[in-house]
Protein backbone atom coordinates (compact mmCIF):
# COMPACT_ATOMS: atom_id res chain seq x y z
CA UNK A 1 0.00 0.00 0.00
CA UNK A 2 1.43 3.37 -0.97
CA UNK A 3 2.13 5.80 1.83
CA UNK A 4 -0.42 8.59 2.11
CA UNK A 5 1.13 12.03 1.64
CA UNK A 6 0.30 15.08 3.73
CA UNK A 7 -1.98 16.66 1.10
CA UNK A 8 -4.10 13.50 1.03
CA UNK A 9 -4.59 13.39 4.82
CA UNK A 10 -7.55 15.47 6.04
CA UNK A 11 -6.83 17.50 9.16
CA UNK A 12 -9.66 15.91 11.09
CA UNK A 13 -8.08 12.46 10.55
CA UNK A 14 -4.75 13.77 11.79
CA UNK A 15 -6.44 15.19 14.88
CA UNK A 16 -8.23 11.88 15.51
CA UNK A 17 -5.01 9.87 15.27
CA UNK A 18 -2.97 12.25 17.42
CA UNK A 19 -5.69 12.49 20.06
CA UNK A 20 -5.31 8.76 20.78
CA UNK A 21 -1.56 8.84 21.38
CA UNK A 22 0.07 8.97 24.84
CA UNK A 23 1.41 12.34 26.05
CA UNK A 24 5.09 11.41 25.62
CA UNK A 25 4.53 10.54 21.96
CA UNK A 26 2.74 13.85 21.41
CA UNK A 27 5.74 15.72 22.80
CA UNK A 28 7.95 14.07 20.17
CA UNK A 29 5.47 14.66 17.35
CA UNK A 30 5.40 18.38 18.13
CA UNK A 31 8.86 18.60 16.58
CA UNK A 32 7.95 16.82 13.33
CA UNK A 33 5.73 19.47 11.76
CA UNK A 34 4.67 22.97 12.70
CA UNK A 35 1.07 22.17 11.81
CA UNK A 36 1.09 19.23 14.23
CA UNK A 37 2.56 21.40 16.96
CA UNK A 38 -0.22 23.95 16.40
CA UNK A 39 -2.87 21.22 16.60
CA UNK A 40 -1.43 19.65 19.77
CA UNK A 41 -1.20 23.02 21.52
CA UNK A 42 -4.78 24.03 20.72
CA UNK A 43 -7.38 24.03 23.52
CA UNK A 44 -9.84 21.97 21.44
CA UNK A 45 -7.25 19.24 20.92
CA UNK A 46 -6.36 19.20 24.63
CA UNK A 47 -10.04 18.67 25.49
CA UNK A 48 -10.39 15.90 22.87
CA UNK A 49 -7.24 14.13 24.06
CA UNK A 50 -8.44 14.31 27.66
CA UNK A 51 -11.82 12.77 26.77
CA UNK A 52 -10.13 9.95 24.85
CA UNK A 53 -7.77 9.30 27.76
CA UNK A 54 -10.68 9.03 30.18
CA UNK A 55 -12.60 6.69 27.85
CA UNK A 56 -9.58 4.42 27.36
CA UNK A 57 -8.80 3.95 31.06
CA UNK A 58 -9.35 0.52 32.50
CA UNK A 59 -12.40 0.49 34.74
CA UNK A 60 -10.37 -1.04 37.57
CA UNK A 61 -7.37 1.31 37.47
CA UNK A 62 -6.34 4.00 39.93
CA UNK A 63 -3.43 6.38 39.47
CA UNK A 64 -1.48 8.13 42.25
CA UNK A 65 1.15 10.85 41.94
CA UNK A 66 3.79 10.52 44.66
CA UNK A 67 6.32 13.18 45.61
CA UNK A 68 9.23 12.38 47.94
CA UNK A 69 11.89 14.70 49.34
CA UNK A 70 14.99 12.90 50.63
CA UNK A 71 17.22 15.03 52.87
CA UNK A 72 20.95 14.29 53.03
CA UNK A 73 22.85 15.65 56.04
CA UNK A 74 26.63 15.98 55.72
CA UNK A 75 29.33 15.87 58.47
CA UNK A 76 29.72 19.66 58.39
CA UNK A 77 25.97 19.91 59.21
CA UNK A 78 25.14 21.24 55.76
CA UNK A 79 22.31 19.51 53.98
CA UNK A 80 20.79 18.98 50.59
CA UNK A 81 17.55 17.40 49.49
CA UNK A 82 16.57 15.45 46.41
CA UNK A 83 13.06 15.40 45.01
CA UNK A 84 11.67 12.24 43.44
CA UNK A 85 8.42 11.92 41.50
CA UNK A 86 6.64 8.69 40.71
CA UNK A 87 3.37 7.72 39.04
CA UNK A 88 1.83 4.66 40.68
CA UNK A 89 -0.67 2.77 38.54
CA UNK A 90 -2.88 0.48 40.60
CA UNK A 91 -5.25 -2.05 39.10
CA UNK A 92 -7.42 -4.95 40.17
CA UNK A 93 -8.27 -7.91 38.00
CA UNK A 94 -12.07 -7.72 37.98
CA UNK A 95 -12.41 -11.48 37.64
CA UNK A 96 -9.75 -12.77 40.00
CA UNK A 97 -9.72 -9.71 42.28
CA UNK A 98 -5.91 -9.74 42.11
CA UNK A 99 -4.08 -6.50 42.89
CA UNK A 100 -1.31 -5.22 40.61
CA UNK A 101 0.77 -2.07 40.50
CA UNK A 102 3.60 -0.56 38.51
CA UNK A 103 5.68 2.51 39.24
CA UNK A 104 6.91 5.00 36.66
CA UNK A 105 9.60 7.42 37.81
CA UNK A 106 9.13 10.93 36.40
CA UNK A 107 11.74 13.53 35.56
CA UNK A 108 10.32 17.01 36.15
CA UNK A 109 13.01 19.73 35.93
CA UNK A 110 11.50 22.20 38.40
CA UNK A 111 13.45 25.43 39.03
CA UNK A 112 14.31 24.96 42.69
CA UNK A 113 17.00 25.59 45.27
CA UNK A 114 18.57 22.82 47.35
CA UNK A 115 16.44 23.63 50.40
CA UNK A 116 13.09 24.24 48.70
CA UNK A 117 10.10 22.22 49.83
CA UNK A 118 7.76 20.71 47.23
CA UNK A 119 4.02 20.41 47.97
CA UNK A 120 1.09 19.12 45.91
CA UNK A 121 -2.01 21.32 46.13
CA UNK A 122 -4.50 20.21 43.50
CA UNK A 123 -5.14 18.23 40.35
CA UNK A 124 -7.37 18.74 37.30
CA UNK A 125 -7.39 17.21 33.81
CA UNK A 126 -3.84 15.89 33.96
CA UNK A 127 -2.37 19.11 35.41
CA UNK A 128 -1.04 19.35 38.97
CA UNK A 129 -0.72 22.53 41.04
CA UNK A 130 2.58 22.49 42.91
CA UNK A 131 4.34 24.82 45.34
CA UNK A 132 8.15 24.72 45.03
CA UNK A 133 9.76 26.88 47.68
CA UNK A 134 7.94 30.20 47.33
CA UNK A 135 6.87 29.60 43.73
CA UNK A 136 3.59 28.20 42.41
CA UNK A 137 3.77 26.04 39.29
CA UNK A 138 1.28 24.22 37.07
CA UNK A 139 2.79 20.97 35.85
CA UNK A 140 1.87 18.17 33.46
CA UNK A 141 3.64 15.12 34.97
CA UNK A 142 3.10 13.06 31.82
CA UNK A 143 5.14 15.47 29.67
CA UNK A 144 7.34 17.21 32.26
CA UNK A 145 6.09 20.62 31.08
CA UNK A 146 5.35 23.31 33.66
CA UNK A 147 4.41 26.97 33.98
CA UNK A 148 5.65 29.18 36.82
CA UNK A 149 3.01 31.61 38.05
CA UNK A 150 3.70 35.29 38.87
CA UNK A 151 4.45 36.27 42.46
CA UNK A 152 1.56 36.92 44.83
CA UNK A 153 0.40 40.49 45.41
CA UNK A 154 -0.99 39.59 48.85
CA UNK A 155 1.90 37.63 50.39
CA UNK A 156 4.19 40.29 51.83
CA UNK A 157 7.73 40.07 53.27
CA UNK A 158 7.96 39.71 57.04
CA UNK A 159 7.69 43.08 58.81
CA UNK A 160 11.09 44.49 59.80
CA UNK A 161 10.01 46.94 62.49
CA UNK A 162 8.05 46.63 65.73
CA UNK A 163 4.73 46.81 63.92
CA UNK A 164 3.54 45.36 60.65
CA UNK A 165 1.13 43.21 58.69
CA UNK A 166 2.03 39.54 58.64
CA UNK A 167 0.62 37.44 55.77
CA UNK A 168 0.65 33.62 55.83
CA UNK A 169 -0.27 31.17 53.08
CA UNK A 170 -3.17 28.96 54.26
CA UNK A 171 -4.45 27.03 51.27
CA UNK A 172 -4.65 26.71 47.51
CA UNK A 173 -7.05 25.24 44.96
CA UNK A 174 -6.75 24.55 41.25
CA UNK A 175 -9.39 23.68 38.67
CA UNK A 176 -11.22 24.48 35.47
CA UNK A 177 -13.76 27.28 35.14
CA UNK A 178 -16.44 25.67 32.97
CA UNK A 179 -18.08 29.04 32.23
CA UNK A 180 -14.99 30.95 31.09
CA UNK A 181 -13.38 27.75 29.76
CA UNK A 182 -10.03 28.37 31.41
CA UNK A 183 -7.92 27.11 34.30
CA UNK A 184 -7.74 29.05 37.56
CA UNK A 185 -5.78 28.92 40.79
CA UNK A 186 -7.17 30.32 44.05
CA UNK A 187 -4.93 31.11 47.02
CA UNK A 188 -6.12 31.87 50.58
CA UNK A 189 -4.10 34.19 52.81
CA UNK A 190 -4.23 34.66 56.59
CA UNK A 191 -3.60 38.25 57.74
CA UNK A 192 -2.69 39.59 61.17
CA UNK A 193 -1.34 42.75 62.76
CA UNK A 194 1.88 42.00 64.65
CA UNK A 195 3.63 43.90 67.40
CA UNK A 196 7.00 42.80 68.71
CA UNK A 197 9.07 44.38 71.45
CA UNK A 198 12.54 43.55 72.81
CA UNK A 199 13.81 44.82 76.12
CA UNK A 200 13.16 44.20 79.78
CA UNK A 201 9.67 42.98 78.91
CA UNK A 202 9.73 41.24 75.55
CA UNK A 203 6.43 40.29 73.99
CA UNK A 204 4.92 39.27 70.67
CA UNK A 205 1.26 39.92 69.88
CA UNK A 206 -0.76 38.89 66.83
CA UNK A 207 -4.22 40.29 66.09
CA UNK A 208 -6.00 38.15 63.53
CA UNK A 209 -7.68 39.93 60.64
CA UNK A 210 -10.12 38.52 58.04
CA UNK A 211 -8.64 36.15 55.50
CA UNK A 212 -8.19 37.36 51.93
CA UNK A 213 -7.86 35.46 48.67
CA UNK A 214 -6.55 35.93 45.16
CA UNK A 215 -7.36 34.19 41.87
CA UNK A 216 -4.97 33.48 39.01
CA UNK A 217 -6.25 33.02 35.46
CA UNK A 218 -4.10 31.47 32.75
CA UNK A 219 -5.35 33.77 29.98
CA UNK A 220 -4.46 36.94 31.90
CA UNK A 221 -1.40 35.32 33.56
CA UNK A 222 -1.97 37.45 36.66
CA UNK A 223 -3.54 37.42 40.14
CA UNK A 224 -6.50 39.49 41.31
CA UNK A 225 -7.72 39.93 44.89
CA UNK A 226 -11.18 38.68 45.92
CA UNK A 227 -13.07 38.71 49.22
CA UNK A 228 -13.94 35.76 51.43
CA UNK A 229 -17.51 36.39 52.52
CA UNK A 230 -19.18 33.39 54.13
CA UNK A 231 -21.92 33.24 56.74
CA UNK A 232 -21.32 30.44 59.22
CA UNK A 233 -20.94 29.64 62.90
CA UNK A 234 -17.33 28.62 62.22
CA UNK A 235 -14.50 30.95 63.10
CA UNK A 236 -13.47 32.78 59.86
CA UNK A 237 -10.13 33.78 61.40
CA UNK A 238 -8.81 30.27 62.05
CA UNK A 239 -9.23 27.92 59.10
CA UNK A 240 -6.54 25.32 58.30
CA UNK A 241 -6.85 23.81 54.84
CA UNK A 242 -5.97 20.47 53.29
CA UNK A 243 -5.02 19.72 49.70
CA UNK A 244 -7.89 20.75 47.45
CA UNK A 245 -10.21 18.44 45.50
CA UNK A 246 -11.64 19.63 42.17
CA UNK A 247 -15.03 18.58 40.79
CA UNK A 248 -17.24 20.15 38.11
CA UNK A 249 -16.15 23.77 38.41
CA UNK A 250 -15.63 23.80 42.19
CA UNK A 251 -12.62 23.44 44.49
CA UNK A 252 -13.20 21.74 47.84
CA UNK A 253 -11.11 21.62 51.01
CA UNK A 254 -11.56 19.75 54.25
CA UNK A 255 -11.27 22.32 57.05
CA UNK A 256 -11.60 22.36 60.82
CA UNK A 257 -11.52 24.84 63.69
CA UNK A 258 -14.45 24.69 66.13
CA UNK A 259 -15.76 21.76 64.08
CA UNK A 260 -15.19 19.95 60.80
CA UNK A 261 -16.69 21.13 57.52
CA UNK A 262 -16.00 21.53 53.81
CA UNK A 263 -14.93 24.83 52.30
CA UNK A 264 -15.81 25.22 48.61
CA UNK A 265 -15.00 27.77 45.92
CA UNK A 266 -17.01 28.37 42.75
CA UNK A 267 -14.39 28.97 40.04
CA UNK A 268 -16.99 30.57 37.77
CA UNK A 269 -18.64 33.03 40.18
CA UNK A 270 -15.46 33.24 42.35
CA UNK A 271 -17.48 32.87 45.57
CA UNK A 272 -16.68 30.81 48.68
CA UNK A 273 -19.17 28.58 50.49
CA UNK A 274 -19.24 26.38 53.59
CA UNK A 275 -20.80 22.91 53.45
CA UNK A 276 -21.68 21.17 56.70
CA UNK A 277 -20.55 17.59 57.31
CA UNK A 278 -22.75 14.94 58.94
CA UNK A 279 -22.88 15.19 62.72
CA UNK A 280 -21.05 12.24 64.25
CA UNK A 281 -19.86 13.68 67.56
CA UNK A 282 -22.22 11.53 69.63
CA UNK A 283 -20.43 8.41 68.34
CA UNK A 284 -16.90 9.76 68.97
CA UNK A 285 -16.16 9.81 65.24
CA UNK A 286 -14.11 12.65 63.81
CA UNK A 287 -13.83 13.66 60.16
CA UNK A 288 -10.32 13.92 58.74
CA UNK A 289 -10.47 14.45 54.98
CA UNK A 290 -12.19 14.22 51.60
CA UNK A 291 -11.62 12.50 48.27
CA UNK A 292 -13.52 11.78 45.04
CA UNK A 293 -15.59 8.67 44.39
CA UNK A 294 -17.76 8.18 41.26
CA UNK A 295 -17.67 11.93 40.62
CA UNK A 296 -18.97 12.70 44.11
CA UNK A 297 -17.37 14.40 47.09
CA UNK A 298 -16.65 11.74 49.69
CA UNK A 299 -15.56 12.25 53.29
CA UNK A 300 -14.26 9.81 55.87
CA UNK A 301 -14.31 9.80 59.64
CA UNK A 302 -12.77 7.42 62.17
CA UNK A 303 -12.56 6.53 65.82
CA UNK A 304 -10.20 4.34 67.84
CA UNK A 305 -11.25 1.00 69.23
CA UNK A 306 -8.38 -0.05 71.48
CA UNK A 307 -5.33 -0.04 69.15
CA UNK A 308 -7.39 -0.17 65.94
CA UNK A 309 -9.32 2.29 63.79
CA UNK A 310 -12.92 2.04 62.64
CA UNK A 311 -13.79 4.04 59.50
CA UNK A 312 -17.02 5.44 58.08
CA UNK A 313 -17.21 6.73 54.50
CA UNK A 314 -19.91 9.26 53.54
CA UNK A 315 -20.94 10.45 50.06
CA UNK A 316 -22.49 13.84 49.35
CA UNK A 317 -25.70 13.62 47.27
CA UNK A 318 -27.76 16.25 45.42
CA UNK A 319 -25.15 18.94 45.78
CA UNK A 320 -24.35 21.97 43.66
CA UNK A 321 -21.10 23.13 45.27
CA UNK A 322 -23.05 25.11 47.86
CA UNK A 323 -25.10 22.55 49.77
CA UNK A 324 -25.91 18.87 49.69
CA UNK A 325 -27.18 15.91 51.66
CA UNK A 326 -25.01 13.08 52.99
CA UNK A 327 -25.42 9.30 52.81
CA UNK A 328 -23.27 6.85 54.74
CA UNK A 329 -21.77 4.56 52.12
CA UNK A 330 -20.13 1.98 54.36
CA UNK A 331 -18.35 1.20 57.63
CA UNK A 332 -15.09 -0.77 57.59
CA UNK A 333 -12.72 -1.97 60.26
CA UNK A 334 -11.50 -1.89 62.88
CA UNK A 335 -8.01 -2.16 61.35
CA UNK A 336 -4.57 -2.05 62.93
CA UNK A 337 -1.71 0.01 61.44
CA UNK A 338 -4.05 1.67 58.90
CA UNK A 339 -3.94 5.47 58.87
CA UNK A 340 -6.62 6.56 56.39
CA UNK A 341 -8.40 5.73 53.11
CA UNK A 342 -7.03 7.40 50.00
CA UNK A 343 -9.69 6.53 47.46
CA UNK A 344 -12.48 4.12 46.68
CA UNK A 345 -11.57 2.06 43.63
CA UNK A 346 -13.81 1.40 40.66
CA UNK A 347 -14.27 -2.24 41.69
CA UNK A 348 -15.54 -1.17 45.13
CA UNK A 349 -12.12 -1.73 46.66
CA UNK A 350 -10.92 0.91 49.15
CA UNK A 351 -7.25 1.84 48.94
CA UNK A 352 -6.05 2.26 52.54
CA UNK A 353 -2.68 3.69 53.49
CA UNK A 354 -0.86 2.65 56.64
CA UNK A 355 2.46 2.85 58.41
CA UNK A 356 5.83 1.38 57.36
CA UNK A 357 5.24 1.82 53.66
CA UNK A 358 2.18 -0.40 53.67
CA UNK A 359 -0.96 -0.15 51.60
CA UNK A 360 -4.03 -2.32 51.57
CA UNK A 361 -7.17 -2.86 49.56
CA UNK A 362 -10.33 -3.36 51.56
CA UNK A 363 -13.32 -5.05 49.93
CA UNK A 364 -16.26 -2.75 50.63
CA UNK A 365 -18.72 -5.66 50.59
CA UNK A 366 -16.92 -8.17 52.82
CA UNK A 367 -14.68 -5.83 54.82
CA UNK A 368 -11.69 -8.10 54.15
CA UNK A 369 -8.31 -6.36 54.10
CA UNK A 370 -5.56 -7.43 51.68
CA UNK A 371 -2.22 -5.88 52.71
CA UNK A 372 0.48 -5.03 50.16
CA UNK A 373 3.93 -3.58 50.45
CA UNK A 374 4.56 -0.87 47.86
CA UNK A 375 8.29 -0.59 47.18
CA UNK A 376 7.89 3.08 46.25
CA UNK A 377 6.82 3.81 49.86
CA UNK A 378 9.54 1.83 51.60
CA UNK A 379 11.75 4.81 52.56
CA UNK A 380 8.92 7.13 53.58
CA UNK A 381 9.07 6.30 57.28
CA UNK A 382 12.58 7.74 57.66
CA UNK A 383 12.64 10.89 59.76
CA UNK A 384 14.48 12.66 56.97
CA UNK A 385 12.01 11.79 54.21
CA UNK A 386 8.91 13.88 53.51
CA UNK A 387 6.24 12.95 51.02
CA UNK A 388 2.90 13.97 49.63
CA UNK A 389 0.63 12.14 47.24
CA UNK A 390 -2.56 12.83 45.38
CA UNK A 391 -4.98 10.57 43.56
CA UNK A 392 -5.10 11.67 39.92
CA UNK A 393 -7.59 9.15 38.59
From TrEMBL:
Pfam families: FBA_1 (PF07734)
Domain of life: Eukaryota
SMART domains xrefs: FBOX
InterPro entries: F-box-assoc_dom_typ1, F-box-assoc_interact_dom, F-box-like_dom_sf, F-box_dom, SCF_F-box_component
CDD domains in alphabetical order: F-box_AtFBW1-like
Residue ranges occupied by any F-box domain in the UniProt entry: 9-49
SUPFAM superfamilies: F-box domain
PANTHER family: BNACNNG10540D PROTEIN, F-BOX PROTEIN CPR30-LIKE
Listed NCBIfam families: F_box_assoc_1
Protein name per Swiss-Prot or TrEMBL: F-box domain-containing protein
Organism: Pyrus ussuriensis x Pyrus communis
Amino acid sequence: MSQMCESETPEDQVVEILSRLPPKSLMRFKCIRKSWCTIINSSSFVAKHLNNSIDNKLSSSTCILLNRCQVHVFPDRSWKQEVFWSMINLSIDSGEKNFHYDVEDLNIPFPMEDQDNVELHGYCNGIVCVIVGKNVLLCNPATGEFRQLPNSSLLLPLPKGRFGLETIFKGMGFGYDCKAKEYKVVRIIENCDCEYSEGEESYYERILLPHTAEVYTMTANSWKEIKIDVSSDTDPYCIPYSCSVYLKGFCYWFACDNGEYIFSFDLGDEIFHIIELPSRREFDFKFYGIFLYNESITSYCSRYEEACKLFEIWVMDDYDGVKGSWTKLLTVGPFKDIDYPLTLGKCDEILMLGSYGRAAFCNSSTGNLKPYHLCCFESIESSLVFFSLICVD
